[in-house]
Amino acid sequence: MKIGILSDTHGAVAAMTQGMQLLRAAGAEYYIHCGDVGSEAVLDQLAGAPAAFVFGNNDWDREELEAYAKKLEITCLGSVGMLDLGDKRIAVMHGDDMRAMQKVVGDQAADSLLFGHSNRWEDERAGGVRMINPGALYRAKTKTVAVLDTANDELRYIALE
Questions:
Q1: What structural domains and CATH numbers belong to the chain?
Q2: pTM
Q3: C-alpha span between 58 and 154 (Å, rounded)
Q4: Residue 161 pLDDT exceeds 90
């Protein structure tokens, strides 16, 4: 399964739209937003696709975002979530809670940990957990998204133009 990973849009709808177009073109089958969504208009870009998101530290209107996501049939994972996709266990969080990140890594509770917050892409391993940050769609010199292919563990970063 190919997972499209996005983060830190902070309401930047144009960047989110372009990011989704690039992920669709790359064959993404499921979409995960790693927090700091910033607006309902960003969630509109996930509508109609199998998708999930977590809250980031700048998502102040959480109840409204969660209710809106429910109407669009987008899964809201709260602050931390786990998904089983393509025979892989995927942890998702924003990345602003180091204790939560350390717990996932310490427990070796997931194959991959998807997160954002730092506004820069990362791909590291901590024990058996692959830690992936897709970069950001706002406040980043180069705006990026990522595609993870769970079948072969291949990760590809895609820069927006």
A1: 2-159 (3.60.21.10)
A2: 0.97
A3: 30
A4: no
